[in-house]
């Protein structure tokens, strides 16, 4: 599954997680980054979820979707 992350959120993530810096190349062509969900660590997914929750009501749905996908991935790993 791919995630699309808008510019302000991916820029904040790059500041916090320098290993994501190569994703800046995608921002030259648009305002979103597309990447496979599994390429983000648990800490990175948690950080993104927090960014979405802090962004207010408009992004809370995205935070909930991310949490659902993240917990589903964790269940698959455990099984």
Features:
single chain; alpha+beta; two-stranded antiparallel sheet; 2 strands; globular; disordered C terminus
What does this structure look like?
62% of the residues lie in helices and 13% in strands. It is an alpha+beta fold and 79 residues long. A two-stranded antiparallel sheet has the order 1-2. It starts with a strand and ends with a helix.
Radius of gyration: 12 Å
Overall average residue pLDDT: 86
Class of secondary structure makeup: alpha+beta
- Strand line-up of the largest beta sheet: 1-2
**Proportion of beta-strand residues:** 5-15%
Ranges where pLDDT stays below 50 over 5 or more residues in a row are: 74-79
Instruction: Describe the main β-sheet briefly.
Output: 2 strands, antiparallel
Number-wise, the strands total: 2
- What distance lies between the first and last C-alpha atoms, to the nearest angstrom? 19 Å
Helical amount: 55-70%
Outline:
globular
Number of helices: 4
Oligomer: single chain
Order of helices and strands: EHHEHH
């Amino acid at each position: 599954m791919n995630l699309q992350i808008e510019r302000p959120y991916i820029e904040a993530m790059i500041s916090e997680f320098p290993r994501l810096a190569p994703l800046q190349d995608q921002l030259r062509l648009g305002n979103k980054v597309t990447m496979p969900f599994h390429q983000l660590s648990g800490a990175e997914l948690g950080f993104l979820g927090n960014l979405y929750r802090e962004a207010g009501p408009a992004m809370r749905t995205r935070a909930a979707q991310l949490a659902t996908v993240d917990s589903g991935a964790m269940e698959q790993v455990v099984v």
